[in-house]
Amino acid sequence: MKRIIGILIIAAMLAASFAGCVDSNEAPDTEEPTDAAQEPLNPNDILFTVPGKKAVMVIGGGDAGSNNARYWNDECWMYEILVNQYNYSKENVCVLYADGEPVNEDNCPDPGSAVEYELPINYPANKTALREVCDKLALNMLPEEQFYFWANDHGSFSTEPNVGHVPAHCVVLCLWEENIKDCELAGDDYLGKVKNYSNRIIFMKQCFSGGFIDDLSAEKTVICTACTDGSVSFGGASSGGYPYGMFSFYFQAALSGAYPDGTPADGGDADADADGKVSIKEAFDYAFAKEFEYGEGLTAAELPQYDDNANGLGTDPTDGELGSGTFL
């Protein structure tokens, strides 16, 4: 009898142990992670997918011999202002820089003058990349969202006629080892493809940047350029021992309220109407005045230009209303 009871007990124990096993035809509770799940997310896959303001920042530099460190410094500072002061989502700020690599001795003639900053570079600054960026913007931009396009680089003339426009020649923005003409940038392969926005702010620092105004001027668009279509722009500003572009330095100081080294922007508050915030028009006016004061007449050579009335003409008496109510 005891033997029978023992056998029954053992049988019950075995039945209980098998009851908790997973059948070979059933999926286990957990799976080993696949290789795809372990791959880091490409930031460009989620670019512009977060609702809110969006920005594109471009520095081509031309090539390794002309991509000066001050361009890198300007771009790092502008990125810092957008993300940390104006609440742009990092996923909504696209950075195109030179060959796609951070500033170094292979893509910059004076890397020792570059600030140390982990700038998240999305693309090299070439036409192919810029076209892809504009495709993403056109797909993701909503009518209630603001678009900020910022370029700080070399500029030049093109020998190709600019038929029906003033000036009669094209001007170009230098990218990395190639150029993009004013009519190209404004066209349907690039910025012209992006049609949904509440307003559009365009800042251009390069030489001859005023020549882009007639092509980019449009409704709901504020344009600030460092110079006219026939003049050059200058470097020469500095903060904390690092070089910056002159017009961009004061424009960004107005928006930030301080210089890159943290020193409060001198010469008074750029907030001319004392409403507690700095508009794009106020930032332009501040930069224009401060550049002239600092450069002892340098502005006369650059003559920064402004347009917000869609007439394609830089700085005329009817400009100012839109930009006075437009903020980063």
Question: Could you write a compact summary of the structure shown?
Answer:
The protein is of the alpha/beta class and 328 residues long. It has a single domain (52-324), classed as Rossmann fold. The protein has helices at 2-19, 35-38, 69-84, 127-140, 182-186, 213-216, 246-256, 280-295, 298-302, 321-324; strands spanning 54-59, 93-97, 146-151, 155-161, 169-174, 179-181, 199-204, 221-225, 237-239, 242-244, 305-307.
Please describe what this structure looks like.
The chain is an alpha/beta fold and 328 residues long. The chain contains ten helices and eleven strands. The protein has helices spanning 2-19, 35-38, 69-84, 127-140, 182-186, 213-216, 246-256, 280-295, 298-302, 321-324, and strands at residues 54-59, 93-97, 146-151, 155-161, 169-174, 179-181, 199-204, 221-225, 237-239, 242-244, 305-307. Helix 7 packs across helix 8. Mean pLDDT is 86; it is low at 1-37.
Task: Summarize the SSE layout with pairings.
Elements: H1 2-19, H2 35-38, E1 54-59, H3 69-84, E2 93-97, H4 127-140, E3 146-151, E4 155-161, E5 169-174, E6 179-181, H5 182-186, E7 199-204, H6 213-216, E8 221-225, E9 237-239, E10 242-244, H7 246-256, H8 280-295, H9 298-302, E11 305-307, H10 321-324
Helix pairs in contact: 3-7, 7-8
Percent of residues in helices: 25-40%
Mean pLDDT: 86
CATH class bucket: Alpha Beta
Task: Output the number of helix runs.
Answer: 10
Q: Strands of the largest sheet, in order across it?
A: 2-1-3-7-8-11
Write the H/E string, N to C: HHEHEHEEEEHEHEEEHHHEH
How far the N terminus sits from the C terminus, by CA atoms, comes to 90 Å
Q: Identify the CATH architecture.
A: 3-Layer(aba) Sandwich
Q: For the report, how would you describe the main beta sheet?
A: 6 strands, mixed
